[in-house]
Amino acid sequence: MNTPLGQAIPRVDGRLKVTGRARYASDVSLPGMVHAALVTSTVARGRIALLDTAAAEQAPGVLAVLTHHNAPRLRPLDYPQPGQPPASAGNGFRPLQDDLVRYSGQVVALVVADSPQQAVHAAQLVVVSYDREAHQVAVESAGEPFAPPSGSAGEALDYRRGSVREALEAAEVTLSRRYATAPVHHNPIGPFAAVAAWEGDRLTIHDATQGVCAERKGLAAWLDLDPAQVRVVSAFVGGAFGAGLRVNVHSVLAAMAARRVGRPVKLVLSRAQMYTLTGHRPQSRHDLVLGAHRDGRLLAICHDVLHTTSRFDEHIDLNTELTRMLYACPHLAACTRLQRLDIDTPCHMRAPSHANAAFALESALDELAVALSMDPLELRLRNHADRDPDSGLPWSSKSLRQCYARGAERIGWQRRDPEPRSLREGRWLLGLGMASAAYPVHRSGASARARAEADGRVRVASAAADIGPGTYTVMSQIAADALGLDVSRVSFELGDSDLPKAPLQGGSMTVASVGPAVREACRRLRAELVGEGEPLTTEAIARTLARRGVDHLEVGARTPGGSADGFAGHAFGAHFVRVRVDQDSGEVRLDRWVGVFAAGRILNPATARSQMLGGLVMGLGQALLERTQFDPASGRIINADLGEYRLPVCADPGDLEVIFVEEDDPHVNVLGAKGIGEIALVGVAPALANAVYHATGVRVRELPIRPELLTA
Ligand code: MOS
Fold first, then answer.
1. CA 325 → CA 224, 549, 558, 573, distances in Å?
2. What pLDDT is recorded for position 81?
3. Spatial CB neighbours of 665, under 8 Å, sequence gap ≥ 6
4. Taking a C-beta distance cutoff of 8 angstroms, is the pair 239, 209 a contact?
5. What is the CA angle 679-685-691, rounded to 5?
6. Is 242 touching ligand 1 by the criterion CB < 6 Å?
7. Is the CB of 506 under 6 A from ligand 1?
8. By C-alpha distance, which of 701, 669, 542 is closest to 601?
9. Ligand 1 neighbourhood includes 210 CB (under 6 angstroms)
10. So what's the pLDDT on residue 344?
11. How far does residue 617's CA lie from ligand 1's centre (Å)?
């Protein structure tokens, strides 16, 4: 039998999704279920002076109004959330615990009513007045940047190799530039929702999350329960992109409300609430100094990053990690500092750190190429890192040169006239740009179980998540391959904390982490059922079960974390784009994108391609359209909706081509797969900015690249 691995198998959950039968948290309806709505702060800093809930309590259908006066007490999380240093544990915001207003849009009250409409109506009747304090939501006028308390991220905040100062003095060419990126929001199409139900002191919560086990742990900590008392179910998630990594406040609010009224409670966030309750990609500023030999070889890089965090948490995006490893460069200093603002805490967003860092680094490389009158691709080849310059280790595999070559060929890079404004079609200025991409290979410990049934089917399960990449499908393929079965005879279950433990779906590590556990469980099951090389027919399964006198057979496996011992594991890629810019309006269109990626073995070319297209589109949004705007006067987000916050739509991307350079990498994990969830986003923005420069001669050093920046 041919292995299903590497086949473009259609999504096994596709039919459920397109027929509306996939049950998302917001679809869950339980007997006796009632509905919650939130009241959020309208000032960005201060204290609640008055909170009058009388009118709301008397409104039709209202069962309870929770405020900081009467809400159940929550314990602090005694461990850090993703992206936060250990020292910040316990500092995180806990809703409805005090009268402090930390940012605009913070939850200040919650109403429970029979219907969603009644809850929303009553929420509008809650009267809140504030003692305001001066707030700060603009980096330019905010206080001193700071280094978060050291911990695991400690050394990485101030990284150094070689002697940068001397190297920069000795360099034949130096370039010093500042780049900036806007804050952006994840905007999953499915607003986050939770349905919480208590049975005695046991909580079951249906939620939109990237990790049911992590959420179980977090809710148990907040609510002072044993994790065994909490069950989190999240079989389908309508996108998350990192916003579902930390334990979000809507989840604990639903649990608090359900406990108070003694009935199941559903809480669905509004689109506006998604902007203030689920995090965002922080705003960042990059001061980059490059020193190079005249032949283009980098001698020194100095990369100082400043990015935003909230007043009450330290979220860290280590933007400098990419800079440390992308090019061979002996002298390097990289430093990360945070800026506190009166905003919700930022969080990880698809290709966290790397997406912002790539804009700065890959724009600067392009500027260096211009300064040296060198082809930007040639400059990158001259700085190709043959080993990991960060760890000094050899790469587990690296096919970046092949990515460059394939992409250059497909876009026609060789014919590119380096002169800006040299390509034109009527009033459109055309430009070609490129950038490199890289993303580390991560792996966590995971477990899975496989169960053979008398009907000849095998049911495989792990408490993993599928926020959209195709985990159901690829895990089914991995299981089918290990069992020697057709995918149609395998089913895969995920998204339930009662299943064998699995890590968060983050860091592009699900296949590398959960895949080996699934494979191992299935191999063990197969060995229990048939002899080696024997086909796993329905009859063979039935025979073994009958011989053992059981109606099913279940086997579990747990596989460790860690990856590529003795090697540096990274996926690499290259973006080549052609843009057109309207010379009068400054409108930028993406004409053509060729994305070439080497990420080990591609287990499903269809879902993998889809991941790359998603990364490109998200990068296109960051590059040209998306910007969360905080109004300095009020401290509010003034475009917290899909009308004013501009997301890419189907008409935005032009002709898109995805190419995979397949690698045989025995070091990363038993599947040879490197992870593909995030790499495509890394490098999109600088490739576009570099192409815009080639088209117009205007170098835009801030995202998004807006028409007014090109026509000024
Ligand atoms: Mo991703 S930002 O690791 O969910």
1. 42, 57, 31, 14
2. 80
3. 396, 397, 569, 600, 601, 672, 674
4. no
5. 125
6. yes
7. yes
8. 669
9. yes
10. 96
11. 16
At which residue do the structure tokens 């923005």 appear?
685
Q: Where does 441-551 show beta strands of DSSP type E?
A: 446-453, 458-461, 490-493
Ligand 1 centroid, distance to 351 Cα (angstroms): 6
Q: Indicate the top mutation candidate among 348, 513, 618 to test ligand 1's pocket, ranked by most ligand atoms within 8 A of CB.
A: 348
Residue entry with tokens 């002709």: 655
Q: Please, what's the largest Cα pairwise distance for the chain?
A: 81
Q: How many CB atoms lie within 10 A of CB 160?
A: 13
Splitting the chain (712 residues) into consecutive groups of 10 residues, what average pLDDT does each group show?
Answer: 92 97 97 98 98 98 98 89 71 91 98 98 98 95 80 74 97 98 97 98 98 97 97 98 95 98 98 97 97 98 96 90 97 95 96 97 98 98 97 97 98 97 96 98 97 96 98 98 97 98 97 98 98 94 96 98 92 98 97 98 98 98 98 97 96 96 96 97 98 98 97 82
The per-residue pLDDT for 154 is 61
Task: Give the ligand 1 atom nearest the CA of 351.
Answer: 2
Ligand 1 centroid, distance to 245 Cα (angstroms)? 7
The Cα 3–Cα 477 span in angstroms is 8
349 lines ligand 1 (CB under 6 A): yes
Strand partners, 128: 51
Record the tokens describing residue 691, joined without a space: 């192409």
Q: Which tokens is 462 given?
A: 């792990």
Do residues 205 and 233 touch, judged by C-beta distance below 8 A?
A: yes
Report how far Cα 158 is from the mean position of its chain's Cα atoms: 24
Q: Is 514 helix (H, G, I), strand (E, B) or coil?
A: helix
In this structure, what token pair is assigned to residue 626? 């998306």
Half-sphere exposure of 548 (CA within 13 A, CB side): 16
What pLDDT is recorded for position 319?
Answer: 85
348 within ligand 1 shell (Cβ under 6 A): yes
Sequence-ordered list of residues with C-beta below 8 angstroms from that of 556, at least 6 positions apart, any chain: 447, 448, 449, 450, 500, 521
State the amino acid at position 454 in one-letter form: A
- pLDDT score, position 88: 64
Estimate to the nearest angstrom the gap between the alpha carbon of 360 and the chain centroid: 19
- Ligand 1 center from residue 640 Cα (angstroms): 22
> How many angstroms separate the CA atoms of 243 and 128, rounded?
28
Going by CA atoms, what residue is nearest to atom 4 of ligand 1? 242
Cα–Cα dist 55/118, whole Å: 13
Nearest to 383 by CA among 328, 326, 323: 328
Report the distance separating Cα 89 and Cα 355, nearest Å.
Answer: 26
With a 6 Å cutoff on the Cβ, whether 186 touches ligand 1 is: no
Please state, in angstroms and rounded to a whole number, the distance separating the CA atoms of residues 234 and 240.
Answer: 12
Residue in 319, 321, 678 to alter for ligand 1 test, most ligand atoms within 8 A of Cβ = 678
- Mind giving me the DSSP string for 136-189? ---GGGS---BPPPPSTTHHHHEEEES-HHHHHHH-SEEEEEEEEE--B----S
Contact 581, 432 (CB under 8 A): no
Among residues 425, 678, 702, 708, the one annotated as catalytic is: 678
Cβ atoms within 10 Å of 190's Cβ, excluding its own: 20
Exposure string (b/e) for 548-579, b if CB count within 10 Å is 16 or more? Answer: eeeeebebbbebeeebbeebbbbbbbbbbbbb
Contact 634, 276 (CB under 8 A): no
At position 64, the amino acid (one-letter code) is A
Q: Which pLDDT belongs to residue 85?
A: 76
Sign of CA dihedral 44, 50, 51, 55: negative
Give yes or no: 708 in active site. Answer: no
| Residue 350 Cβ < 6 Å to ligand 1 | yes
Q: Between β-strands 107-113 and 655-660, what pairing exists: parallel, antiparallel or unpaired? A: unpaired
Q: Sign of dihedral through CA atoms 363, 364, 370, 376?
A: negative
Q: H or E element: which one contains 548? A: helix 538-548
| CA 282 to ligand 1 center in whole angstroms | 14
